[in-house]
Amino acid sequence: MTALGFCDVRVSYNGIEAVQGFNDLLHSGEWLCLIGPNGAGKSSVLRAAAGLVPYTGSIAIDQTEIPATSARWRAQHIAYVPQSPLIPHDMNVHDYVLLGRNPYVGHFSSETKQDREVIHGVLERLDLIDFSHRRLGTLSGGELQRLVIARALAQEAPVLLLDEPTSALDIGHQQQALELVDKLRREQGLTVVSAMHDLTLAGMYADRLVLMHQGARVAEGSAKEVLKPNILSEFYGVSARVHHEEDGTVVVIPQRTTTR
Amino acid sequence: MNRNRYWFALAGALLFVAMIVGTMIGPAGPTWWRIPLEFANRLPFIHVNSGVSKADWNIVWLIRTPRVVLAAIVGSMLSVSGASYQGVFRNPLVDPYLLGVAAGAGLGATLVFAFQRGATEHWIIDPLPLAAFIGALVAVLVTYVVGTAFGTTQSSTTLILAGVAVTSLATSIQAFILQRNTDVVRQVYSWILGRLSSATWGDVRLVLPYVVLSTGVLLMHRRLLDVLRVGDDEASALGTNVRRVRLIVVLAATLGTSAVVAVSGLIGFVGIIVPHAVRLIAGASYRVVLPLSVLLGAAFLVFADIPSRVLANPAETPIGVVTAFFGAPFFLFLLRTRNTSK
Description:
The complex is a heterodimer. Chain A is an alpha/beta fold. Chain A has one domain (2-254): Rossmann fold (3-Layer(aba) Sandwich), CATH 3.40.50. Chain A contains nine helices and twelve strands. Chain A has helices at residues 42-49, 71-77, 93-98, 113-125, 141-154, 171-188, 199-205, 223-226, 229-236; strands at 2-13, 16-27, 31-35, 56-61, 64-65, 78-81, 159-163, 191-195, 208-213, 216-221, 240-244, 250-254. In chain A, strands 6-7-8-3-9-10 form a six-stranded mixed sheet, sandwiched between helices. Chain A has a four-stranded antiparallel sheet with strand order 2-1-4-5, with helices on one face. Chain A has a two-stranded antiparallel ribbon with strand order 11-12. The longest helix of chain A is centred in the C-terminal third of the chain and has 18 residues, at 171-188. The termini of chain A are far apart. Chain B is built from 14 helices and no strands. By secondary structure, chain B is mainly α. The relative contact order of chain B is 0.16. Chain B has helices at residues 2-24, 34-42, 54-88, 101-116, 127-150, 157-180, 185-192, 201-220, 222-228, 232-237, 242-264, 270-282, 286-310, 319-341. Chain B has one domain: Orthogonal Bundle (ABC transporter involved in vitamin B12 uptake, BtuC). Chain B is globular. In chain B, 75% of the residues lie in helices and 0% in strands. Chain A binds chain B through residues 50-52, 71-76, 78-80, 82, 85-88, 90-92, 95-96, 99-100, 102-103, 105, 107-108, 110-111, 155, and chain B through 220, 223-224, 226-227, 229-231, 233-241, 279, 283-285.
């Protein structure tokens, strides 16, 4: 079953095309990772799907095209985790996760008992229940990342978009965050699209990689198919070795050009 | 939640005390302790012999009480507008005069003082509040149209800058008119500093519909103001139409502020210090900040009006002077605690 479809999606900023006709079909529970150098258009694809930039073409969920005018409908079906979320330091954890219920609450109404139960469940699942009354300003980077994912889960949307979910985290918290997303998509059948810079991690967690360059898709496939030295040098301008582990993990190691 | 209920009860009690004390103090009238007795006497089924004469009662009921009630209305409106503006612009330092309300109202009032003095006594409608009200609305309208037309992004920065420009423009026109009519400078000056001294029940009736309407609309947006705290992008990704929310909140806050400015002049600092005091005691969620600002804003201005009556007795100290005198040090204190807590 197709969960998320992109059909000829184009995004331009001041006449310059940042995404040139992006097409893709994701099945339910798939994790697609967009890779590519800075400015390749990865974030723009995610921002288009989240409704944050105007685009042409269409994006559909379960074969239903996202209506351009309903931010609420979109938010009920797509949860978006930005690269650097704006954290209101004096808000508490519970209230922050509660924002995820916004797409289900009417303009003038307030959250129902059911909304609060969903929040309680999410907080429990992500081990945040003891944090409920802590202020966001007192949390660490890893805790905040978990919290932003919690808010996205509160949206109960079938599609999760992650823009650079690990860029601000240390190696341990990177692994924790990605393991969490992986676990959630396996348990709940979430369809995940992420943009990532760490190619090794991208290859480890995603089912499929799409390499973008100057707004166009230039390569796609498994980590083994995409992460090749010649492809990386052509589009990233990097000289790198690619090492294949026995368990199938593909490791990308940048090389020093000067000798020691 | 329980803690918040406690704050609401306390704020309500404070407002009640403020209003009672407010009616007790003033240059003329009955002995102060007789006044609450007479109020009690006037409630149905209660008879207390307060010994207040008819003439004394008129001073209390026709001069002091409308003044106290108007102070409460103005204080709550300015505070809740200030809190709402701070919410939609995500900037803790903005006040309800941000988008040109003050300058527009000032220009409107100046026009009336300069060109209609003396001749307006037989008019059906007092042109002074009308002109101030229209001036304020027009200024904000110009700011909004210009700010959203020239803004290339959805950012609110253009709107704030447009407000700065419109404010300067209106202020310069006002200065030009004053330059050519130096005889009304005193009147304009005293209007700008704010006045509740001439308050009547008529003023109360004049502003009450606007204040009730806009306070109601603003309170209904308290949950959405919390959503806006994560920024325009994330709020829209969470399914909120950010531009529409901002437009409605700005409109409602402007309507209410313009109405109270029209009858009370420009009373500064209330719209900044009250919401911040509320945040300090009860947290930053707008679900609490907005309704508490209504209560505490009312209580604050009723209390502030008392020194303005007695400080320079029998003359009046403009209430804007009192609020700024207490407001400015408080504001500095606030900045200090903000910086040390980071």
